[in-house]
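Duplicate of earlier report; Enoyl-CoA hydratase input re-posted below.
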Amino acid sequence: MADTLKYETIQVRTEGRVGVITLDRPKALNALNTQLMTEVVDAATALDADQAVGAIVITGSDRAFAAGADIKEMSEKSFSDVQSERFFGDWDRLAGLSTPTIAAVNGFALGGGCELAMLCDLIIAGDTAKFGQPEITLGVIPGIGGSQRLTRAVGKAKAMDLILTGRQMKVDEAERLGLVSRVVPAEQTLSTALEVAAEIAGKSSIAASLAKEAVNRAFESGLTEGVRTERSLFYSTFATDDQTEGMAAFVEKRKPTFTHR
Ligand code: CO8
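Output:
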């Protein structure tokens, strides 16, 4: 389990089989600086390795999920700084977690904040949520996958609109475009995300990680390769105790008891 005491910019806790990471730089609207990025990746990696954790929720505050990468920190950097320190390169490790992840978003999810939400498997958004990629207004472009994941999620027409104008998109538009999984009243965002996370964590963790890998392959590759990958992942579920138990429980008309093996 992640050692929450060592973190300064996030809080980490577990509720049953759900790990919760709360971004905690309220004065900067949870702007993502190097320390926060390092702490989120460290905590998420520890939760991912913990067999007792079956889903991870990442959330912010009522006012902001995250208002982007920390502009004050970035403004001091040169090309050679960002290139040599692989600035924000570790963020990609979040995409490689095998535990399902849910972003619970209220308020601003802008720039790197929108990209962090899109790195998660599901986005549950409150009705106050606003998404956008405003990097163009700072003379830069998205750098944590935004130009790729947003385009795959909402299509070229809307991605170009959002990335070239830098405008903020309200949650009803984000839901219509398929960027968010569910929209709820803002005061219910975290509780809904925790419920969904608990539901996922109650399933077979092995099956969940294979299902996640299969869906991500659809996102990242062509149909033929994706279907081939899904087939071999499906076959591999027959090597698990959870497949034996899940199907036996159905046949015997009882609830399955998954051991996540
Ligand atoms: N970075 C640093 N500080 C921020 C940020 C930020 N992204 N966003 C807000 N803050 C700070 C403000 O400076 C302010 O601090 P202070 O009180 O010390 O001046 C405090 O948070 C509150 O902000 P505001 O007073 O501006 O609050 P408003 O309600 O008036 O406005 C907004 C809220 C609209 C969210 C506004 O703060 C804003 O526009 N923020 C910047 C949004 C933005 O441009 N985000 C994109 C950043 S670039 C990016 O994310 C690139 C990611 C790629 C990284 C590449 C890695 C390879």
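The first strand starts at residue 10 and ends at 15.

Merging into the original ticket.
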